[in-house]
Amino acid sequence: MSKPILGIDLGTTFSAMSIVDRFGKPAIIPNSEGHSTTPSVVHFYEPGGWVVGEQAAKMVVADPHNVVRFMKRSMGESDFELSFFDRSYTPQEISALILRKLKDDAEEAMGTEITDAVITVPAYFNSAQRGATTEAGQLAGLNVLSIINEPTAAAIAYGLERLGGFRRMMVFDLGGGTFDVTLMEIRGIRFQTIASDGNAELGGKDWDDKLLNHVAEQFVEKHGLDPRDEPQPYQELYERCLYAKISLSSKPRAIIPINYKGKRMIVKVTRQEFEQLTADLVEQCMDTCRIVLKRAGLRWDQLGEVLLVGGSTRMPIIRSSLARLSGRRFAPNINPDECVALGASLTAVLRHRPDHPALKSHRKSIALRSRESMTGAAPRSNPYTSAESTTGGAPLTGLPPIQIHDITAHPLGMIVLDQQHKERVLTLIGASTPVPCEKRKRLGYAYNNTTAVRVEVTEGTGNKRDEVEVVGEVLLENLPIRSKGSPLEVLYRYNVNQILEVYIIDIESGTRRHAQINLRGSIGGKKMEERKREIAQMRLC
Q1: pLDDT tens digits, one per residue of 80-98
Q2: Residues in a beta bridge with 266
Q3: Domain stop point among 227, 246, 277
Q4: What is the rounded distance in angstroms from the CA atom of residue 150 to the CA atom of residue 154?
Q5: Residue 366: what pLDDT?
Q6: Are residues 432 and 514 in the same domain?
Q7: Which residues contact residue 506 at a Cβ distance below 8 angstroms, ignoring those fewer than 6 apart?
Q8: According to the 3-state scheme, what is the secondary structure of 179-201?
Q9: Contact of 177 with 203, CB cutoff 8 Å
Q10: Measured distance between the N- and C-terminal CA atoms of the chain, rounded to whole angstroms
Q11: Percent of the chain scored above 90 by pLDDT?
Q12: Is 180 a domain residue?
């Protein structure tokens, strides 16, 4: 069998991993504790010593100063670091420890070395966040073949057995820390993203925080003391509120005990009270659905179904609100915690393993079906193909070579000078542009006697510098002296991982410079190799 590729859902609160077997069936790989998901929590218990997952989660209350979680929300922030035992860690490095745990557990479960991976990210992640995720995988010792959007991965996991004809769906992805809404079309074997929007800082944690603050304020009102003021009481209360939130998904009420500085209190919360507390968060989610639908120029009755992804979609208020808004049915038989990882592993094979036995099996099946249709032979049964996915003749086996087409989440452009030498943003690649894509722009030098030019790459919507973010730059220097208006060309190439490459070309000389933009939060170069070696030497308990 071809070399395995690990499909990884690197989540804010939980992570999961999957692999595709030789028959084309994706399966979740359990961690070393035997569970299908791993808490995205890291505990540093001594210098150079760390644990990830359930062991780390148990230390949240006992040793809160040395536990870190929700790190996904800080990916791509260049000035964000946390220190443990006199050593600083970037978000990429902490995420790398989580990925290292997944990699080690997968190798133990499969009995073979795994070096290649496809990792998922929220569709609304920007270039810096995607670049930081790639770096995290590299630091963990993985060759990151692709970065794929979580809603796309979920749609593939759901739609692979429903190919043929046409269907359009909304993927509603509410995880522990991020939120995405994506509209997908499946035409034959083509998966196409048509519109997407979201919030990289909205997720189940925000519901937790609302409940925690509600409970803490009642305690303050009664006792004049605030358990949020100290790390250990805060974490203890957070865990109790988290448990209560989960409980309220299946029960009408929950009880939350508080014990702080010798004072005690029990707060009772009903599901109705919790839903009132978090009504603004739910409305944010519904507003995003409306925005995406409007952006695509569609009506609700033009959608087939809604695919619920992420553990936070289990909250009854999310399901009832979305059902009222959309009038659509929810896609059946989907595990919201596992479908993203399953889709990642399928994408891994479809994009990067053309020699995989499941793809060969599918090609043989097509030939067999063709012969059977000519001879009138009876169709053969196939446990991996539903009746919904066949259109006559013998059902197909293995994996069909589907086409996956994502879109850009954010516009990409550059800072230019107008005729009055005032700065403005020139957009080269607009939002919702299908990827991969390539855009060229012919420009002119702004000044006489120019020997160098710099392209500042922007991301975001706006016409002014302060309305967008400058995410990198490329410098072309040592040119022959150029006069004002002499031509140059800028080329943007945006690949399937939604990572941008920029070229500057001096037309007269043919001189060019090329760079994958220096992403915010990027480690890069020698420092990357040093940090990779350090992480490899750290002790995983």
Answers
A1: 999 999 999 999 999 999 9
A2: 257
A3: 277
A4: 6
A5: 44
A6: yes
A7: 476, 479, 482, 488, 512
A8: EEEEEEEEECCEEEEEEEEEECC
A9: yes
A10: 32
A11: 74
A12: no
Q: How far is CA 333 from CA 38, 336, 339, in A?
A: 22, 9, 10
User: Does a structural domain hold residue 103?
Assistant: no
Report the chain's mean pLDDT, rounded to a whole number: 89
Same-domain pairing of 514 and 457: yes
Structural domain count, the chain: 3
Residues 468 and 509 in one domain: yes
Give residue 361's identity as a one-letter amino acid code. Answer: S
Compute the average pLDDT of residues 46-51: 93
Cα→Cα distances 28→22, 36, 121, 306, 331, Å: 14, 6, 18, 23, 20
Q: Give the domain CATH number at 246.
A: 3.90.640.10
Give the Å distances, CA to CA, from 58 to 42, 52, 226, 316, 448. Answer: 10, 10, 23, 28, 65
Residues 501 and 437 grouped into a single domain: yes
Instruction: Find the domain containing 237 and state its range.
Output: 204-277
The helix (H) or strand (E) run that includes residue 46 is strand 41-46
Q: What is the predicted pLDDT for the residue at 165?
A: 86
Is residue 153 one of the residues assigned to a domain?
no
The two tokens of residue 479 are 């040119």
pLDDT at 107 over 90: yes
174 neighbors 312 (Cβ within 8 angstroms): yes
Distant-in-sequence, close-in-space partners of 25: CB < 8 Å, separation ≥ 6: 384
Domain membership flag for residue 54: no
Confidence of residue 262 (pLDDT cuts 50, 70, 90): very high
Average pLDDT (167-172) is 96
d(CA 64, CA 44): 10
In the predicted structure, residue 535 carries a pLDDT above the cut 90: no
Q: What residues have CB less than 8 Å from 248, skipping those under 6 apart?
A: 254, 269, 271, 274, 315
Question: pTM of the predicted model, to two decimals?
Answer: 0.88
- pLDDT for res 312: 97
490 and 447: one domain?
yes
- The single-letter code of the amino acid at 248 is L
Q: How many CB atoms lie within 10 A of CB 431?
A: 17
b vs e for 471-482, b when ≥16 Cβ sit within 10 Å of the residue's Cβ?
bbebebeebeeb
CB neighbour list of residue 156: distance below 8 Å, 6 or more residues apart: 191, 343, 346, 347, 402, 404
Distance CA 252, CA 431 (A): 43
Q: What's the chain's length in residues?
A: 541
Task: Specify burial of residue 87 (Cβ count, 10 A radius: 0-12, 13-18, 19+).
Answer: middle
Are 271 and 370 within one domain?
Answer: no
- Where is 525: in which H helix or E strand? helix 525-537
